Fold these 2 entries.
Entry 1:
Amino acid sequence: MEEQTVVLIVGAGPAGLATAACLTKLSIPHVIVEREDSSASLWRNRAYDRLKLHLAKEFCELPHMSYPADAPTYIPKISRKCWFSVARDVATSVVVRYTTRFLIVASGENSAANIPVIPGLHDFAGEAIHSSRFKSGAVYSGKNVLVVGCGNSGMEIACDLASHGANTSIVVRSPVHVMIKEIIRLGMTLVQHIPVNVVDDLLVRLANFVFGDLSRHGIVRPKTGPLQLKAETGRSAVIDVGTVGLIKKGIIKVLGNISRIKGSIVEFENGRESAFDVIVFATGYKSTANTWLKNGESMLNNAGLPKQEFPNHWKGANGLYCAWLVLPWMPRISPVASCLATMHKCDVPDKMN
Ligand SMILES: Cc1cc2nc3c(=O)[nH]c(=O)nc-3n(C[C@H](O)[C@H](O)[C@H](O)COP(=O)(O)OP(=O)(O)OC[C@H]3O[C@@H](n4cnc5c(N)ncnc54)[C@H](O)[C@@H]3O)c2cc1C
């Protein structure tokens, strides 16, 4: 079956939906294709139950749809007050070939689970899952669980596991900034007016005051400040949800890097060995755009991410765009709106005629 549209958007996550909203406002015809059976599938299907937005709501709004004034500052994944979307079920076996002038990559930087290569992992005797399949620690009560990765997902999953009575350990391989959400919110607000190094210095002082020296618990701060680090590498500060207190009490054990796995035994680089029933890999995600997009090299690198840095990352050649969230401490979604406004101004109306 053949169909034509002006703009084809690949991915119905927040970026794809935001793009569609902007195009609707501009009366530009478009179609969204989505590989899963719902919109915002990362949030609906691949996030743990207790998840709340890590950033305050004012930094996470979609264009043309502000959060209601009475919405919580940190929006929970599961809320009794929520938006509904009603969609037609298109689950048929019909293959549609779209012809489109403009193609927008909105398939996300979290499109596939990233699990490191570890010798012996395939023969691990217990259960090994990626954080995208973890829902709640309730089913792991009494089990020996190792969480690999100390980003926001890993630290929160470790807290959830320990709170549900799992004997929990976490692998902390690299330096990490641990913060509280109020400090990050303050930083994101201040950095709009004050140089980032000054703001970072303040944030680190505040966090040290809150947490004290965590190095004796195996958690070391990076030399670069939290907002600068995010800008340079994309690595976010960890927002503590109670994990640090459990680490200080010895309820969650901090372990170093894994060297290999033998049956149910995990060996660490420092020579330590421990048996685990479950390993949860909170080791991040990767883009899959390069697997479905052919000739996308004008815009994407080998990892399926934009070649150019913000604010020049969003446009490739021949009508190729990305609604992509590779921003530093800036609001992650709202720049989609400005990209689309620019696209409208520069390109689309001319070429539509
Ligand atoms: C645990 C966790 C916590 C987070 N917390 C925050 C936060 O507090 N604040 C924040 O701003 N961000 C947060 N993020 C970042 C998150 O990436 C964004 O919030 C947002 O989901 C990104 O939107 P997106 O539309 O770019 O990508 P996604 O939400 O990943 O959506 C991409 C969509 O494209 C679809 N897709 C992929 N490939 C194809 C294909 N070939 N064909 C068709 N469809 C395809 C996917 O199924 C998916 O529905 C968090 C992420 C995680 C994992």
Note: The chain has two domains: 2-111+287-352, 114-281.
Entry 2:
Amino acid sequence: MEKSEVIALAKKNNLEIDFIDYNIAFRVGNTVAVNEDLLKYDDYCRTTLNHEFRHTSENKFMKKDLAMDIFEGSLITCLFFAFKHPRAFRQFLPFGKYKNKWFIDLNLIIVYGIGLIALCIYLGLAL
Ligand SMILES: [Zn+2]
């Protein structure tokens, strides 16, 4: 995708784009921060943008955002991208820094929590 196309798509959703060189993509208020390398993968870029556009602008915990992060997106695709562009691995940290401000990704903490519980159930009961 071209940068201009990404910016135009965001504008349609009344959002702004900030191109960065780490993570994959995330939403901060009305800004979608996008790893520039993502533009090299047309389909993945479109899917990711569509996901970020539909997140709420709230910087607090929202059920809708959590549901999106649990049920959407493909971990395999994210990992594939991160192995090619290692700075994207920062996306998997449940905290991050954007414009010198730290933030916590509560959704990711919950996702990891669910994963850990599932693993304990599996190891504790199934084996
Ligand atoms: Zn998300």
Note: The beta strands are 16-20, 25-28, 31-35, 95-98, 101-104.
